[in-house]
Design goal:
The complex is a heterotrimer.
Chain A: E1 2-10, H1 15-24, E2 28-34, E3 37-44, H2 47-59, E4 63-73
Antiparallel strand pairs in A: 1-3, 1-4, 2-3
Chain B: H1 2-22, H2 69-72, H3 87-99, H4 119-126, E1 130-132, E2 135-137, H5 201-204
Antiparallel strand pairs in B: 1-2
Chain C: H1 2-9, H2 16-30, E1 52-57, E2 66-72, E3 75-81, H3 94-97, E4 113-116, E5 119-122, H4 125-138, E6 143-147, H5 153-167, E7 172-174, H6 181-191, E8 208-212, H7 216-219, H8 221-232, E9 238-243, H9 248-252, E10 255-258, H10 264-277, H11 284-289, E11 290-294, E12 323-324, H12 327-334, H13 339-346, H14 350-361, E13 367-371, H15 373-376, H16 381-395, E14 404-407, H17 414-420, E15 427-428, E16 432-433, H18 437-446, H19 462-469, E17 478-482, H20 486-489, H21 493-496, E18 507-512, E19 524-527, E20 536-539, E21 544-548, H22 561-574, H23 590-593, H24 606-609, H25 614-622, H26 636-641, E22 645-646, E23 650-651, E24 657-658, E25 690-694, E26 710-715, H27 731-736, E27 742-744, H28 746-752, E28 759-763, E29 768-774, E30 785-789, E31 817-823
Parallel strand pairs in C: 6-7, 6-17, 8-9, 8-13, 9-10, 11-25, 13-14, 17-18, 18-19, 26-30, 27-29
Antiparallel strand pairs in C: 1-2, 2-3, 4-5, 4-19, 11-12, 15-16, 20-21, 21-22, 23-24, 26-31, 27-30, 28-29, 28-31
The chains are: A alpha+beta, B mainly alpha, C alpha/beta.
């Protein structure tokens, strides 16, 4: 199990579509928006999936950058 | 079977709480809560749940925190890296500086939450300076003092407010954009005062923002080549400080 | 939704995964850019280029830091800390660095406003001055002025002369009455003369520093870091924090001892108890320079607790200096204050009392005690101030570099204008008591007034003045407020301020720079020039007088407070009012303001006010009066050159002017006769001795009980100064501390079922207030105590506080009362 907090930077011009896409990402929950950036929680079952998920997020049009605030990783729990 | 049930049950509760934390409840068919419609700027940040809300279930194995270690380690700039300064980088670095100060020379506001009572917590990052990916915690530009929050205001204190809605029409002095050079290629003079900026590497060292960073971090005696400005330092004794108008 | 709510409400708790998610979201959200910061463009376009720099003291607290103000095109554009000023040596606090912004709040008052049909409407200055003159001429004895420790020295002097010399009564009092009147009374009771003997240099030499109920890390940060920064240089300083709640200052301390409110007298007595047991009374130093003293009689009639129960005979001003007590009586009186006994009363461990006494008795140590509003806003404020001086006398921790008992002040010129200029209802310029006919004659001669002009009757002190003003048929019907905001800062506001609403016949005049709680009820509002929009001088807590010149023009029709006073005086003179004439029939300010050849430019006309330096002329007239009580000030020109000078400033053989660091100490104070070592030349007992006092610990007038089980403590935060009129208009300070809150202990919060941010109603027998809770915030009160800052004009805690006051200083106790709490 990997649970982490993210800050997602979004291009203001594409924010609506970008956020729509983010909502579709499995395991991602958007939090609040401030100063043009979003907080979010991401949960995946293991580290490999986490990295995959990050790549998925970065590939979304309009997502500019991702800051990782924290990750809790628990090897023994799925 | 029991284990799956536990996980399912936990997920339900977790889902519900996360919903509560952002102020919206979950819909039964959606795995995660729907976000607020755009664009909504939030003034209320979610709070960390207090420990007494956690049940007494046995904890799992030791938590392991990690981040992008591959991106973090060894990727800082090295002394030997070639630094190319662009005007755009410099302007954006100066603009970022300006956004955190009332005027050039004002102590910058703290752009993140702090433990205002513990000086050690400031020094952890700002004592020697730290860089994590694109986030730079500059080394203090001045000699250490014992009471950081004496001078540095928090840019915002979450949870308190709203405040008096009075606008202020103050217009502050802008940062100088550069010193003067006697000829192209000559070392520029210092455009600002040295007081409270004795530590040149804070802005101009390896961890300085692109645009402000020196091209020659291997040289350590800055004042050897870069001349101070006596007027900016108030050390131009021919000028009478005390007379106003 | 319903499931999650039920789950949490039933207290079943969160599972680990949900906790992790909520925590992760909170952590990520905390990293989001703050509002209006990081990434957003700067709010204002800046200015470049050549800046003119000039020195001034900071506008805010009593520390008196030096700042350099940078101006360009008639506007302030930057501020720097003055490295040449010995107070702060190039460092300020966040308020000082943003002091330039206080001029530019967009709701500055720029025109005189008169209340017509309930609304403030613009009128001309001419009309405004006529209105004031009409009100005064109709009943000069029912007119009063309420000023402040933020008046510049010349402003306060002009107002003082106008009322006491012109109107012939003493109804003028500064807000300093609410701030350091107890400190002044403590100095007078102990030394026979006001103001501290030590100075800030002691901060560079002390080896032990004791905070007595103050939080210098927030309230006097520049002075506090001056001590703490010595530790970075490898010096060892023992820092002891005696406090009623943990604060930022506690974090730096070696020992933090929480004490129960009002028990500070017991703690001081406990230290005296140990010192006496160690034989301190037998030291030649004590025997030679000090007398043992106690109060004349119990202040309170048997069975009483409150101000109303004071025995008028016992608290008569003539009893301020008390009476002698024998050595045996003194020891017997202290017998009840063994460290163990004091631990029971105060909560400070007996070992702590012993440690403080040991440190004080150790000649190798230099012990510095300091305090501020905790001692002064106290129903035994005069007593606890006197006791602190006393334990330093008893231990010998006095009159040496670094060994001192220092009273901090809250306003930039509480010392300069309230105390030295004597704008109190019982004083004349130079801190001369009006009760003394000799001093009245001396000032009358100095002002060229007929004898008998100055009244020998003490005027109304602050609380009395507002009570008279807010009562039908009371002694005051026109009140002129300058440079302060009583609508927010008076205690028991309903009775002492808001009641004015019921008396349309009363007339409130308010000179101010922004709309505030006072202008909200004022009948006439006058727009004032502020800070460096005018010339000025301030006197700080260490007797340092500082000077600045006008640097920018005031906005619109805003004008200097001193000009306002002078212009009204001139108008009354032109109308033939006898009080505005001296004994030769000339105008009250004629000799003050005239040129050397006797000609008088029309300085009462605003267009000509700056034709001469009016400040200099007022100051030079004031200056000779400072010599009477040995508070000698130097000529105006010396302050123009210097970055502040500490009085007495005495002319040397070579023509230079020398300041004094330690008063009453041979080698430093030029008034001490050679060979005396110490000489208290204003001694109440006329034998060059100061006093060592005994005062008993007594209960506070109101303590928690079953109905009101919590202590309420009020105070300040670093971002805001006083009622926030200025600092709440500085975006940087306001963002950092946007609103008032109530601090409470987590156990109390848990019992009330409140978390940070939840509303709490705090209620006393006088009023109530609803505030957001802050748990584990900046300060941490112990269980049973709550704390509320007083700066927020929308959340006025003074509707809740008590108006009981000290018997001598008349200063109210804003600091403690009993309240109850509920979730709001």
């Amino acid at each position: 199990m990997a649970i982490g907090g993210l800050v997602i930077g979004v291009d203001p011009a594409m924010e609506t579509t970008a956020v729509e896409s983010l909502r579709q990402v499995s395991g991602l929950s958007l939090g609040v928006r401030r100063g043009g950036r979003w907080s979010a929680v991401l949960e995946t079952t293991n580290a490999a999936q986490w990295r995959q998920a990050e790549d998925t997020l970065l590939a979304i049009p309009g997502v500019v950058d991702i800051e990782v605030a924290c990750i809790h990783y628990d090897e023994d729990v799925a | 079977m029991r284990r799956y049930f536990d996980i399912f049950f936990a997920a339900c509760i977790g889902l519900a709480f996360a919903g509560l934390a952002v102020g919206l409840g979950p819909e039964p068919t959606v795995r995660w809560i729907p976000p607020k419609p755009l664009p909504v700027e939030s003034t209320e940040l979610p709070q960390v749940p207090p420990y007494h809300l956690v049940d007494n279930r046995a904890r799992g194995p030791n938590a392991v925190f990690f981040s992008h270690l591959d991106r973090l380690s060894g990727n800082g700039p090295a002394l030997s890296d070639k630094v190319v300064q662009t005007l755009a980088e410099k302007q954006s670095a100066l603009a970022l500086r300006a956004s955190r100060r009332a005027y050039a020379g004002a102590p910058p506001a703290i752009p993140h939450p702090v433990d205002a009572n513990q000086v050690a917590s400031c020094l952890l990052c700002h004592g020697e300076g730290k860089r994590i990916d694109s986030i730079i915690a500059p080394k203090m530009s001045h000699p250490p003092f014992t009471n950081c929050t004496q001078c540095h205001v928090q840019a915002a204190t979450p949870g308190l407010g709203p405040s008096l809605p009075v606008e202020n029409a103050f217009i502050g002095l802008t940062s100088p954009t550069g010193g003067t050079r006697a000829w192209p290629g000559a070392p520029p003079t210092m455009p600002h005062q040295v007081w409270m900026r004795q530590q040149c590497t804070s802005c101009h060292g390896l961890l300085g923002r692109p645009g402000l960073r020196t091209t020659h971090p291997e040289r350590v005696n800055c004042l050897q080549c870069h001349a101070q400005d006596a007027a900016a330092d108030h050390r131009d004794f021919s000028r009478e400080l005390t007379t106003g108008r | 939704m319903s499931q999650s709510n039920t789950t949490i409400q039933q207290g079943l708790g969160l599972d680990r995964r949900a906790l992790l998610k909520a925590s992760a979201l909170a952590a990520a959200s905390a990293m989001l850019p703050s509002e209006g910061q990081a990434g957003d463009p700067p709010a204002n376009v800046g200015v470049d280029g050549d800046v003119t720099w000039a020195k001034a003291p900071c506008r805010f607290c009593g520390t008196g830091c030096g700042v350099l103000i940078g101006t360009k095109a008639d506007r302030i554009v930057a501020v720097q800390a003055d490295r040449d000023n010995d107070v702060n040596k190039g460092l300020c606090c966040m308020k000082g660095y943003h002091v330039g912004l206080i001029l530019y709040g967009q709701d500055r008052l720029t025109r005189p406003l008169l209340r017509q049909d309930g609304e403030l409407k613009p009128i001309s200055w001419d009309q405004a001055l006529d209105l004031i003159a009409d009100r005064i001429a109709a009943a000069p004895q029912k007119f009063a002025m309420y000023g402040s420790g933020q008046w510049t020295i010349p402003e306060g002097y002009a107002a003082n002369k106008f009322v006491k010399g012109g109107l012939g009564h003493n109804h003028i009092d500064p807000n300093a009455r609410l701030c350091m009147a107890s400190a002044a009374a403590g100095f007078n009771a102990t030394y026979g003369v006001d103001e501290p003997a030590g100075c800030y240099d002691d901060l560079d030499h002390c080896t032990v520093l004791i905070n007595w109920g103050n939080n210098p890390a927030e309230m006097h940060p520049v002075l506090f870091s001056r001590v703490c920064d010595r530790r970075l240089r490898g010096e060892k300083i023992t820092l002891i924090d005696l406090t009623t709640r943990r604060t930022r200052s506690s974090e730096q301390a070696d020992h933090v001892w929480l004490f129960k409110p009002n028990t500070d007298l017991a703690i001081a007595n406990g230290i005296a108890h140990v010192l006496v047991a160690k034989g301190c009374l037998d030291k030649p130093w004590v025997q030679k320079h000090f007398r043992l003293r106690q109060r004349v009689a119990n202040y309170i009639k048997a069975g009483g607790t409150h101000t109303a129960d004071y025995d008028p005979e016992a608290i008569h001003p003539k009893n301020l200096a008390g009476k002698d007590i024998s050595r045996e009586e003194f020891i017997a009186a202290l017998a009840d204050y063994s460290p163990e006994q004091v631990e029971k009363i105060s909560g400070v461990p007996a070992s702590g009392i012993r440690l403080m006494a040991e440190l004080m008795a150790d000649p190798a140590q230099r012990v510095l005690s300091w305090w501020c509003m905790g001692f002064n806003q106290h129903t035994r404020g005069t007593a606890i101030n006197s006791l602190l001086h006393s334990i330093h006398h008893l231990s010998g921790q006095w009159g040496k570099q670094g060994a001192s008992a220092f009273s901090l002040t809250g306003q930039p010129s509480a010392c300069g204008t309230a105390r030295e200029v004597g704008t109190f209802a019982h004083l004349l310029p130079g801190h001369l008591p009006v009760l003394d006919p000799h001093y009245r004659g001396l000032v009358e001669d100095h002002w060229n007034l007929p004898h008998g002009r100055i009244s020998g009757k003490i005027g109304f002190h602050t609380v009395k003045m507002w009570d008279e003003f807010c009562t039908a048929g009371g002694g005051i019907d026109t009140l002129w407020v300058q440079v302060t905001n009583p609508g927010q800062t008076l205690p028991n506001r309903n009775k002492l301020f808001l009641a004015k609403r019921n008396h349309p016949e009363k007339f409130l005049i308010c000179s101010d720079v922004y709309p505030n709680a006072t202008t909200a009820l004022a009948d006439l509002v006058l727009p004032s020039a502020m800070y460096v929009e005018k010339n000025g001088m301030y006197g700080n807590a260490e007797r340092r007088t500082q000077h600045w010149f006008k640097m920018v023009k005031p906005p619109g029709e805003a004008r200097d407070d001193a000009w306002q006073t002078i212009a009204v005086s001139r108008r009354l003179f032109d109308r033939g009012m006898p009080g505005m004439k001296d004994k030769d029939g000339q105008w009250l300010f004629e000799r003050t303001l005239a040129d050397a050849d006797g000609s008088l430019p029309p300085l009462w006309d605003w267009d000509h006010y700056y034709d001469r330096n009016v400040d200099e002329r007022l100051f030079e007239e004031f200056r000779p009066l400072t010599k009477v009580k040995h508070k000698d000030l130097a000529p105006y020109g010396e302050y123009v050159k210097a970055h502040g000078l500490r009085w007495p400033v005495v002319k040397q053989a070579d023509g230079s002017w020398k300041e004094t660091l330690w008063r009453f100490v041979e080698g430093s104070d030029p008034n001490v006769e050679p060979g005396k070592g110490l000489q208290f030349y204003h001694s109440n007992s006329k034998d060059d001795r100061a006093f060592i006092w005994f005062h008993p610990y007594e209960h506070a007038p109101e303590e928690p009980d079953e109905a009101y089980p919590f202590w309420l403590c009020t105070g300040r935060v670093i971002e805001h100064w006083h009622s926030g009129t200025m600092t709440m208009r500085v975006p940087q300070l306001r963002r950092s501390m946007p609103a008032a809150y109530i601090e409470l202990h987590s156990a109390d919060a848990s019992r009330l079922n409140v978390r940070s941010g939840d509303p709490v109603v705090v209620e006393s027998r006088r009023g109530s207030l609803r505030l957001p809770a802050w748990i584990g915030g900046r300060g941490q009160p112990p269980e049973g105590t709550v704390f509320v800052p007083f700066f927020d004009e929308r959340l006025l805690i003074n509707d809740v506080t008590l108006d009981a006051h000290d018997p001598f200083s008349k200063q109210p106790d804003f600091k403690k009362c009993a309240v109850r709490l509920r979730r709001g």
